[in-house]
Specification:
Length: about 190
Amino acid sequence: MTIKELNDDEIIEKLRNWYSRNVIECPLCNKIILSREAIEYKNEDFEGKICKSCLEREENKDDEQSELIELKDDLEKLGYEIDVSEIQKIRNFGVNNKIMVTKEFMRKYFEIIELEGKELKEEIHKWLSENTIWCDRCEIRMINEMFENEEIICKDCKEEENMDETDGRMKRLRKFLESVGIIVTEGEIL
């Protein structure tokens, strides 16, 4: 039987049957998805089928939570007892992990920790503008010590740049030597 042979009520009934067998609603975001695209998911709060975007969001939450706990551990190694929620608060002010795990920043943060909202934000931003620089190459804000003589490229990027130059020279030298019939290994070049 083709759809042309069905009346409106029969078409609606067939669509309802297909829908009930092939479509589910993601319980986390309420998005309608095909059953075959739903992914089985289980954590301490929920068990069932969810959409792919919710799965990615849940996995990212887990990754972020792990990263926050790792940061907390790093800060404890420096001698600072700080709650994960406080670390997230610092991040929300635009402080990246490399800066956060410096004694200089943490000293300043514990000096101003009693400030509220806007005042705290202003003090953090003031400290960042005085004590950090944006690297033009990696585009990451780093503490001033990571830069030499008013440069705008951090030491890490400089080191990488130097390694790239060395690799390039070695490749050119090897190519030249091969063109004149001499085969050398990387160890021999060094």
